[in-house]
Amino acid sequence: MFGEPTEVVSIAGKCCESGDMLIWDIALPEAKPGDYLAVFCTGAYGYSMANNYNRLPRPAVVFVENGDAQLVVKRETYEDLIQYDLPLKTKVKK
User: Fold this and answer.
1) Is 74 part of a structural domain of the chain?
2) φ, ψ dihedrals at 36, nearest 5°
3) Which residues cross the membrane (predicted)?
4) Sign of CA dihedral 43, 25, 65, 61
5) End-to-end CA distance of the chain
6) How many domains does the chain have?
7) Residue 15 catalytic?
8) Which of 2, 13, 38, 59 is 20 to 30 A from 26, alpha carbon to alpha carbon?
9) CA distances from 35 to 3, 19, 27, 28, 89 (A)
10) Residue 61: its H or E element
11) Is the distance from CB of 45 to CB of 17 less than 8 angstroms?
12) pTM for the whole thing?
């Protein structure tokens, strides 16, 4: 995502909550499929404050220094989220 800003946008998080806004009114170039947007201050989206609210998996952690990137924590999968869940033992009354 390079180039001159062409539109003013707001960036929302993925929690489907009215307060889940990361950035308000920022001028950016037009985004295309496959583009990335790095947001450096994300509060609870950062690994140290992440949780599984709304059954969202925790993010991967990548260290970047001098243009070199290293994955240091793998992204959590859905299988990771449910690994400790137990089946319900309920009976439906007729």
Assistant:
1) no
2) -115, 150
3) none
4) positive
5) 59
6) 1
7) no
8) 59
9) 12, 25, 16, 12, 46
10) strand 61-65
11) no
12) 0.59
Would you say residue 37 lies in a domain?
A: yes
Residue 9 lies in a domain: yes
Q: Which of 69, 20, 34, 4 minimizes the C-alpha distance to 12?
A: 20
Q: Which two tokens stand for residue 72?
A: 């240091």
CA distance 26 to 38: 13
Marked catalytic residue, from 16, 38, 86, 92: 16
What residue numbers bound the domain in which 22 lies?
1-41
- DSSP code of residue 70: E
Contact criterion met (CB below 8 Å) for 63 and 69: yes
pLDDT tens, residue order, the chain (94 aa): 678 888 999 998 877 778 888 899 999 998 889 988 888 777 667 777 788 888 888 888 889 899 999 999 999 999 999 999 998 887 777 7
